[in-house]
Write a structure and sequence with these properties.
About 40% of the residues lie in helices and about 25% in strands. The protein is an alpha/beta fold. Helix 4 crosses helix 5 (about 140-150). The structure holds adenosine-5'-triphosphate. Adenosine-5'-triphosphate binds next to strand 2 and helix 1. Adenosine-5'-triphosphate (ATP) binds near residues 16, 39 and 41. It is found in: Cell membrane.
Length: about 260
Amino acid sequence: MLSIQNLYKQFGSLVAVNNLELSVAPGETVVIMGPSGCGKSTTIRMINRLIEPDQGAVMFDNVDITRLDDAGLRTMRKRIGYVFQQFNLISRLSAIENVMLGLVMGGQSKEEAYGKALAALGKVGMEQAIDQKPGQLSGGQQQRVGIARALAFEPELMLWDEPTASLDPMLVREVLIVMEELAKYRAATMLVVTHEIAFALHVADRIVLMEKGAVVETGLPSQVFVEPASRVGRQYKELIEYQLSTSASTLAGKRIA
Ligand SMILES: Nc1ncnc2c1ncn2[C@@H]1O[C@H](COP(=O)(O)OP(=O)(O)OP(=O)(O)O)[C@@H](O)[C@H]1O
């Protein structure tokens, strides 16, 4: 469904993405991980051209997104949902107005947009708060509205750029649960950049590990995190083992276990 070929991006003298190759099959949930600055966000943003690639192709349904003109790109973006790290909601608009806005701007009638926005807010468990303004919502609720805004277009592909990174740790879970549900029901093909290891282990069909702008390893979570073939994979394995051992001993020490 999505095939990224030879993708390259340089900022000044810094090579952020270096001839990256990556494919995602229909319905798959692929999680991209790797150290800070390895080019994850730049890659995901080049797919819908929030960042223009210097070279390479992004084939989606046999169309090269990098070669689309403005009108073609606008049409294509309706098929590709994008969830940002920052929620980017408009503070003077209610939750449902935020979700409706893109639909109405895309030419849909208010009635049609309202119906789709309501359904999308229902999918993220926000039907009780449709009239609240962003300032009245928690960070987790705001991000769920951000997810509904993408879902309202019924996208075939959803791109997630660190969707929990701006959240208080106590609110991360509610967003991960929504993402897990979407992955479970294959609501869309999902390409997710995240540092949430538990989500990657539990929900991803496939993990892609990046280092220095390129893919260094790809495989099932059970392969990549258990028998890693790359340096980055071994670092994640050690991190997971450390987290498991410290949580187990802490729980035992606190007599919770
Ligand atoms: N607009 C820009 N101008 C200059 N350098 C940039 C720009 N955007 C990203 N970079 C640099 O490109 C490299 C890759 O950045 P990117 O944000 O893609 O990394 P990342 O893997 O998503 O990191 P993180 O996990 O910290 O978000 C980094 O060295 C970053 O500083």
